[in-house]
Design a protein that fits this description.
The protein is mainly alpha-helical. It has helices at about 15-25, 35-45, 50-60, 65-85, 90-110. Helix 3 packs antiparallel against helix 4 (about 65-85) and helix 4 (about 65-85) packs antiparallel against helix 5. It starts with 16 loop residues before the first helix and ends in a 14-residue tail after the last helix.
């Protein structure tokens, strides 16, 4: 993609804690009820560093094109796999399985939660 066509991509590190609290709503689709997202987030915390889903939520919020969505999903999957490598042996199989499930879910159902636009959504 020609980045000269877009404004500078907002950076996760430049977001305020208040902005991140609104953007990073937990694991699961933005349209899912809060109790479902809370349960999925708690499950996720047994296996993954919360940064993986928080950065993914941030990417979906700033959005832009389908190419960016694929990039955000790929980075999310890679972050989960890195976290799985650090797990104790008895959690690894479940962590890797959950990684694949989460990745497949965002690829198939993520469009509904992604911001599509001509440019990145500002913070």
């Amino acid at each position: 993609m020609d980045s000269s066509k877009h404004t500078l991509r907002p950076s996760y590190k430049d977001a305020t804690p208040e902005q991140l609290a609104k953007i990073c709503n937990g694991v699961g689709p933005s349209w899912a009820p809060a109790p479902i997202r809370k349960a999925m987030t708690m499950l996720s915390d047994w296996f993954f560093n919360s940064a993986s889903w928080q950065h993914h939520d941030f990417g979906y919020y700033i959005g832009c094109t389908e190419e960016e969505r694929a990039e955000y999903d790929r980075k999310f999957f890679e972050a989960m796999l890195i976290d799985c490598r650090q797990l104790p042996w008895h959690k690894k199989a479940n962590g890797y399985s959950l990684s694949c499930c989460f990745y497949a879910s965002v690829r198939v159902f993520g469009r509904a939660s992604f911001y599509y636009g001509q440019d990145y959504q500002p913070l």
